[in-house]
Amino acid sequence: MEYSFSTQVIALAGLCQAVKLVQDVARNTEHDKSALAIMLNSVAVVNANDSIEVYGNSASNLRTGLQLLVDQLGEKPQKDMELTRYIVGVLALERRLNKSSANLAKLGNKLQRLEQQLQHFSITDDTMLASLADTYSECISSLGGRIQIYGQPELLKQAAVQHKLRALLLAAIRSAVLWRQAGGSRLNFLFKRRKLVAQAKQMLAQLPPSSL
Questions:
Q1: At what angle do helices 159-181 and 126-139 cross, to 10 degrees?
Q2: What is the CA radius of gyration of the chain?
Q3: pTM here?
Q4: What does each C-alpha distance from 187 to 75, 180, 190, 191, 193 come to in angstroms?
């Protein structure tokens, strides 16, 4: 895969979209099931030829994430600080993962089994959600620095919701991995923020109108 600045923006949009779904699932019983499937499927795309292939081969699949990227990094005065905390937490966990050869190896083995499971189950099937959640717990949560999720207490107590949240956090980690592989770093947020926002705006402008 050829990495470019646009790949960094695509990866950040994927990360933003994943944590937005985390927020939605923790707060509501209704959420975008199509977006959920796109983000969860990204975990299984390990050897992509192009960055957009990770997200279903269409930039339109990242419309929400691109807009969130513009809102969170741009000049909009009101930022969603909860989303910011999730993003920072995910990037910190990915750095820990990158430094742990044992956890990386374990994650690789888990993803191989995931490919086999997808031959029999949909990515949003309860069996797959439980498997993704288990992968997150074993390979990511075990690194420490767990992310505190805020939402409706009655929802957060449900095992099915917990599985979905951990699966989405795993998808967020996948986007963070792509961000790092594309040359993304904390310095980019400091010195290339405007360029990131400009690239995201350009990608949004090139998308076809969304259908209601």
A1: 60
A2: 16
A3: 0.94
A4: 19, 12, 5, 6, 9
